[in-house]
Amino acid sequence: SGELYCSLPNPRNVHFESINMRNVLRWSAPEGTGDGVLYKVKYAVYGIGKWIRKPECRNINRTWCDLSSETSDYEEQYYASVKAFLNGTCSDWMETTRFNPLTDTKIDPPMVSVSSTDKSISIILTAPEKWKRRPEEESISLLQVYPGLQYNVSVLNKKTKKRWFFSISNNTLVVPWLEPGTAYCVSAQIHVTTPVLDSGFSKEHCIATLKDK
Amino acid sequence: KLFHFGACRVSLSMTEIRAGFTAIKANIQSRDPVRTLSILSHPHSLHKVKSPDRCCVTHHLFTFYVDKVFKHCKTEDSFVNRKISSIANSFLSARRKLGQCREQNNCVCGEESTEKFKQILANYEGLNVTSAAMKSLGELDILLDWMEKSR
Q1: pTM, two decimal places
Q2: pLDDT score recorded for residue B150
Q3: What ipTM does this complex have?
Q4: How many domains does chain A contain in total?
């Protein structure tokens, strides 16, 4: 393809970084090269293997490229590769390991909403959505992608510092027999049993039970 | 974890199998430099197998992995070898259970599943034994993903 002899050091740590199946290729600049390095990116579906160039990531100076669209079929697996250019010379193509969107993605914590009565609090959890190309596209909850998805819920009594943990499969939880007029803080995590995927815990949502009538 | 394959039900320690594979995935897949070929997923994706054929395809695949894959995947790394034999033992017991159900004629092999499995064998035989076995082992997550998708 008319490229010069490639003596430039290689891009380093070429890997996919995936959150909720938003799949971004990332890398570090070649060692010892200052500004001015440009890159191009290609990707391949495992088993087909024909490299496909990514035009939007041709001659870019940033060190990432969003390949979510190209890797959105999570029944397939993928490779991607990056090449660096500087002052008329270039590096080798540097490849990722095989990327499986289903098992290699990270999952955000669930959304948590809480309400209370005098003696109970009700918690509604919402799993994050799979990345989608355009906002108007149909949303796919990660619940549909991972049938074994569960929620781990932590409930803390702010006064006594007593904490309960619950593990639930459906997305609502009512915690009964609580003290009136007391503040409780709720945090939740997503746990997929297999493939093993755990989100972090959400930030705490605090609410007070109503005072006794 | 209980899996339904057509009329057959098989319990499988999927969490252990997954954990074992995850621990050796990078090592095994790095031994397979051929990106342009897949044993399980091309030209026809495993995910296109219709549910009535799941039982037969699964039994074929358990047999395929036990007879043609695990035994040809010896490595110089004892950690990797231990993980492989642990996965192999899980597959052996699952195959036995599925085989028992199959003997009661609950596991019909349709034309599509027979065709699909022929394709898998053809892909396997297109490489030398060690490369084909290592590639198949590196694709274990494709099989596990398919099995779990509609368990």
Answers
A1: 0.91
A2: 61
A3: 0.91
A4: 2
